[in-house]
Amino acid sequence: MMRFFETLKNIWSIDELRKRILFTLLLIAIYRLGSYIVLPGADVDALTASLDAQGGGNDLLGLINLFTGGAFNNASIMALGIMPYITASIIVQLLGFAVPYFQRLQSKEGEAGRKKLSQITRALTVAITLVQGAGYLTYIKSNGGMSSQVDESIFWLSGIIILSTGTIFAMWLGERITDRGIGNGVSLLITVGIIVGLPTAFGFELVDKSDSLLLFALEMFGFFFVTMLTVMIVTGVRKIPLQFAKRMVGRGDAAAPTSTERDYIPLKVNASGVMPIIFAQALMILPVSLAGFGSNEAQTSWLVQQFNDFTSPLYNVIYFCMVVIFTYVYTALVVNPGQYTEYLRRQNAFIPGVRGGAETEEYIDAITSRITLPGSIILGLIAILPAIVAALGVNQQFAIFFGGTSLIIMVGVVLDTLQQIESYLLMRKYDGLVKEGRLEGRGGNSRMQSLGADF
């Protein structure tokens, strides 16, 4: 405990780090304040009563509400949060894999290309926000959330403008946190929205299990175990050892080789991150969305009901399989063995026992395929874990934190933020955040660390 307080003191003593942390907390507080400001013309009480009568809504809307920290169901000016920007970023990233123009911007045009991609992402964010804003206002109206005292045309016009402004402002806050704060701003805003709901869910679960504290203690142990498993899948790497060519010291007959430099390629066990879960979730909600445009019989069919219930066996079997498939697909897109091989050739390095060129590329590809299998299975299990624990009697509000997108995002963002804080501590000759071991990406003699992180 004394070491913990000593670390906090060291963090506070670094002037630049202290200012960055305070700046980050200030902008997060502003973002959270915006989630409580209600849209003009919206009736929050009527909307809440309607949602309570329906039992909460479908999985997609519940997920959006989770990511926005409750702003979605509160008809807030920040109701769409940062999600349109995330959607635009994913679209631009996928275009970078398929469209040559975006490929050039990503890999060949350096800083100018990244600025151009940033401008495209922002413009696409505005377009997506306008569409989603109109859909959200329709959602409010259909659930009785529009006040009878406001003109409908004014409600629509002002609502779309305000929602778009709220999303753009959230995007601006995220970029400012990234530039002048600590951590990735956009990811931090999403994480804060998720964490906001955790104390309430924890409280509900404690009340439900008040007559069986042993069972509640077992749930807390299970939550800790799942969190540690998620940390392992997020940070786990397979190190492929490397050797670099010997350098000669001196000239002529007196020349002597130095000792061979050793290094490694860090291949991530889960190179795809949370993207497979996001893609799978988007496809799982598609049948429900299509049924909403059909007849009443289609909306009440057995298949649609199964897809609208995240605890149903059919939903989870298909969901698990899709996460595994998308993990392989996305890993194939982001991990390019040919780029590793080219890097090794330029650095005059090689993998011991493996010939250069095509053989090295095949070796790296085979290793990637092997480690992706357990990584994809564990990721799939984490994705369906909320349904499993909900079926075992855990409150659904708390069960959603037992895995899925929320837990992986929280773990990834927290580790990334701690890594940045630790970098400041180490640069100032202070002890890091952990006494033994290293946070992912911390220190180490590895030229390939940056290459592994980029891919």
From TrEMBL:
<keyword id="KW-1003">Cell membrane</keyword>
<protein>
    <recommendedName>
        <fullName>Protein translocase subunit SecY</fullName>
    </recommendedName>
</protein>
<comment type="similarity">
    <text>Belongs to the SecY/SEC61-alpha family.</text>
</comment>
<dbReference type="Pfam" id="PF00344">
    <property type="entry name" value="SecY"/>
</dbReference>
<keyword id="KW-0472">Membrane</keyword>
<dbReference type="GO" id="GO:0065002">
    <property type="term" value="P:intracellular protein transmembrane transport"/>
</dbReference>
<comment type="subunit">
    <text>Component of the Sec protein translocase complex. Heterotrimer consisting of SecY, SecE and SecG subunits. The heterotrimers can form oligomers, although 1 heterotrimer is thought to be able to translocate proteins. Interacts with the ribosome. Interacts with SecDF, and other proteins may be involved. Interacts with SecA.</text>
</comment>
<feature type="transmembrane region" description="Helical">
    <location>
        <begin position="274"/>
        <end position="294"/>
    </location>
</feature>
<dbReference type="GO" id="GO:0043952">
    <property type="term" value="P:protein transport by the Sec complex"/>
</dbReference>
<keyword id="KW-0811">Translocation</keyword>
<feature type="transmembrane region" description="Helical">
    <location>
        <begin position="186"/>
        <end position="207"/>
    </location>
</feature>
<keyword id="KW-0653">Protein transport</keyword>
<feature type="transmembrane region" description="Helical">
    <location>
        <begin position="123"/>
        <end position="142"/>
    </location>
</feature>
<feature type="transmembrane region" description="Helical">
    <location>
        <begin position="398"/>
        <end position="418"/>
    </location>
</feature>
<feature type="transmembrane region" description="Helical">
    <location>
        <begin position="314"/>
        <end position="336"/>
    </location>
</feature>
<feature type="transmembrane region" description="Helical">
    <location>
        <begin position="213"/>
        <end position="237"/>
    </location>
</feature>
<feature type="transmembrane region" description="Helical">
    <location>
        <begin position="82"/>
        <end position="102"/>
    </location>
</feature>
<feature type="transmembrane region" description="Helical">
    <location>
        <begin position="371"/>
        <end position="392"/>
    </location>
</feature>
<dbReference type="GO" id="GO:0005886">
    <property type="term" value="C:plasma membrane"/>
</dbReference>
<dbReference type="InterPro" id="IPR002208">
    <property type="entry name" value="SecY/SEC61-alpha"/>
</dbReference>
<feature type="transmembrane region" description="Helical">
    <location>
        <begin position="21"/>
        <end position="39"/>
    </location>
</feature>
<dbReference type="InterPro" id="IPR030659">
    <property type="entry name" value="SecY_CS"/>
</dbReference>
<comment type="function">
    <text>The central subunit of the protein translocation channel SecYEG. Consists of two halves formed by TMs 1-5 and 6-10. These two domains form a lateral gate at the front which open onto the bilayer between TMs 2 and 7, and are clamped together by SecE at the back. The channel is closed by both a pore ring composed of hydrophobic SecY resides and a short helix (helix 2A) on the extracellular side of the membrane which forms a plug. The plug probably moves laterally to allow the channel to open. The ring and the pore may move independently.</text>
</comment>
<dbReference type="GO" id="GO:0006605">
    <property type="term" value="P:protein targeting"/>
</dbReference>
<feature type="transmembrane region" description="Helical">
    <location>
        <begin position="154"/>
        <end position="174"/>
    </location>
</feature>
<keyword id="KW-1133">Transmembrane helix</keyword>
<keyword id="KW-0812">Transmembrane</keyword>
<dbReference type="InterPro" id="IPR026593">
    <property type="entry name" value="SecY"/>
</dbReference>
<keyword id="KW-0813">Transport</keyword>
<dbReference type="InterPro" id="IPR023201">
    <property type="entry name" value="SecY_dom_sf"/>
</dbReference>
